[in-house]
Amino acid sequence: MSTIKLIAGIVSGVTLLASSAFAAEYTIGFSQVGDEGDWRPAFSKDMQEDAKTRGIDLKFADAQGKQEEQLRAVRAFIAQKVDAIIIAPVVVTGWDQVLKEAKRSNIPVFLADRDVEVTDKSLFVTRISADFNLEGKLAGAWLAAASKGNCDIVELQGTVGSAPAIERKKGFEAVISNFPNMKIVKTQSGDFTTEGGKKVMEAFIKATNNLEGICASFAHNDNMQLGAIQAMKEAGLKPGKDVLMVSVDYVPAIKKALDAGEANASVELRSAIGKFIYPVVTDYLQAPKELPKWIVIPSDLHTAAASKMQ
Ligand code: AHR
């Protein structure tokens, strides 16, 4: 063998070694809801960064809040023959068909964060998420204590038909139903956005003569509450003082509002989901086995008083 051929052989061997050392072990498709609010972009960033540290080739698809986009993305992942698919579903319904297509192609599907309602639970491996119902209960229990069980409430709902909007409402109502003098007097969807929350609160302010008799605002997420805070301040009201403010997510902007006394409590929804979900997905890909249908990520309640002590 000539010296040149020998060197070329060594170089191509080294190149092969180097490329296999860096080749991603798994390719995973992730269909994300969109980028509404502050919590979801933090969740997307975590999924992308955590995938890199684990050597996962993540195909990320932002559905811009549209289920049709998610269905398209999942079908594209199937066509690309990814090793696994993770979906954070916009709404709970409408998933049977596409999940059947993934199953026929032997591609396991995992749910992150939000839930689906399907006829056959074997269409997905497991869901890794917080307990939205518990979050609603924690918000309701905090409010029952803070108002001594006496409270007319305005509610800002999340995206209609989404798991967190459905479950947070149910959990909250389950708790306040134990108190005869606690009731939701106005409720409307602000679609989990700051602008949506502001618009909804402006409408509530108009309809209730400047929130007369209203003791609390329960928002299904912090961003709607932040919009509600703006609307209340523009109307000359003092959120956190005139009206108790309780919401979900515990994003940095609500921490500031808690410190400023403009919000009173927020239930934390962890955004670092990668560290919970990727080990489950990769272990499953190495050795497929039956898993519980729901792996729960814990939730914590944060109050203005506790926030000042941190
Ligand atoms: O699915 C979780 C919810 O979706 C978060 O509470 C909200 O901020 C997000 O958009």
Descriptive notes:
The protein is 45% helix and 21% strand. The chain has 310 residues and is α/β, with parallel strands linked by helices. The protein has two domains: 152 residues, Response regulator (Rossmann fold), CATH 3.40.50; 145 residues, Rossmann fold, CATH 3.40.50. The strands form two sheets. The chain has a six-stranded parallel β-sheet with strand order 2-1-3-4-5-11, sandwiched between helices. The protein has a six-stranded mixed β-sheet with strand order 7-6-8-9-10-12, with helices on both faces. The N terminus is likely disordered. It binds alpha-L-arabinofuranose.
Brief synopsis:
The protein has 310 residues and is α/β, with parallel strands linked by helices.
